[in-house]
Each structure stands twice: as C-alpha cells, then as structure tokens.
Design the sequence.
C-alpha cells in the first residue's frame, strides 16, 4: 500500500487499513525474535499492556510463552472487534478500544510493563505529533508500576527526536529496528 506516512497518525487510516488487510501482520519484529528481551525485562506475574496492538500476533506469542495477563489496546474499532472475535476463547488476552493519549479506564500503577511496537512511531507521523507523543508518554508513565518497564520497539529517527521526552518515563528499553 502506498500512502503518505503522515496518515499513520490518523485513526481513519488504521480503520481503512484493517478493513482491507485483516492480517495478522507484525511491524518490525515478531514475538519469537524479541522473546529473549521480553523474557529479560517483562515480569510474567504482572499484567502487561500492549499499546497500539493492531492485528499483530505478538500478544498471542506472549501468552503462549507463559504470560498470564496481556491487555491490548488500539484506537481502531475495526481491529479491536476483529481481535476480540479471534481470541474469544483465550481469556488471558484482552482487547479494548482505547486512545493511548487517554487511558483513564486503567488505574495508575497497574501494569508491570508496557510494550509499544510501532505506536509511538505512528503518532510521531501525524499532526501535533509532539503534543500527542507527550500525552501518550504521560499515560504510559501513569499506568506503570514503580520499577515498571516501557519496552519501545521503534525505528531510529523517532527515538532520536524523542530523547528528552523518553527520559521522563520510569524505565525504557528501546529495541532499534535496523530498517
Ligand atoms: C505501526 S502499527 C503497529 C501495530 C502493532 N503494534 C505491530 O507491532 O504490528 C501502529 C498501531 O497503533 C495504533 N494507533 C495509532 N494511534 C493510536 C492511538 N492514539 N491510540 C491507540 N492506538 C493507536 C494503530 O491503529 C496501529 O494499530
């Protein structure tokens, strides 16, 4: 699909994309490649939040690997409905439509880890990217427990631009994609 990358910051783009491409599709890396890092940094006994999950099989991989509570959010109602249907018999996998800039449905300091594979990158492509990224990171910080971990799988340019904002998050592990 050819598109301006600016559209990656817009919810309508993702609804269209997931309507036309039901997937599954994993951006950057699949679970098996990242499992050694995830196992090192993400506790199995605390709930994990996957932000901007899309139709990735990453969270399924986590549950298959022993993680017991993986909560997934995405701004696209199309993809959330599809994933709820797909995983209706997997109670350890939960899917909720939510904007990562406002995760007030979750109490503060609830999650042991937040995993972000390509979602901050998408927000950085859109309008008001700086403010939207700051709102997202505030919310990530709020829902993480003390000593919780934010695992960011990103493309190099995003992380360079965001260096100062990322310093505010409690703990960051950034896996830089080589593309
Ligand atoms: C590049 S895709 C990554 C999908 C998935 N994490 C993966 O690794 O394959 C970015 C995802 O972020 C979601 N997204 C974009 N803006 C969002 C927002 N404000 N709140 C929640 N999800 C958002 C999109 O719907 C899309 O599913």
Sequence:
């Amino acid at each position: 699909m050819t598109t301006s990358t600016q559209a990656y910051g817009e919810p309508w783009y993702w609804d269209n994309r997931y309507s036309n491409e039901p997937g599954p599709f994993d951006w950057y890396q699949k679970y098996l490649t990242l499992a050694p890092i995830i196992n090192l940094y993400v506790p199995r006994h605390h709930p994990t939040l996957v932000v901007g999950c899309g139709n990735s099989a990453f969270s399924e991989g986590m549950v298959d690997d022993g993680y017991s509570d993986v909560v997934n959010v995405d701004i696209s109602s199309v993809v959330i409905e599809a994933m709820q249907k797909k995983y209706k018999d997997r109670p350890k996998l939960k899917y909720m439509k939510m904007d990562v800039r406002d995760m007030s449905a979750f109490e503060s300091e609830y999650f042991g880890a937040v995993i972000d594979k390509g979602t901050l990158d998408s927000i950085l492509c859109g309008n008001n990217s700086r403010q939207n990224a700051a709102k997202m990171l505030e919310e990530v910080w709020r829902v993480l427990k003390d000593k919780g971990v934010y695992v960011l799988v990103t493309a190099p340019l995003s992380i360079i631009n965001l260096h100062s904002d990322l310093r505010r998050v409690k703990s960051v592990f950034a896996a830089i994609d080589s593309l």
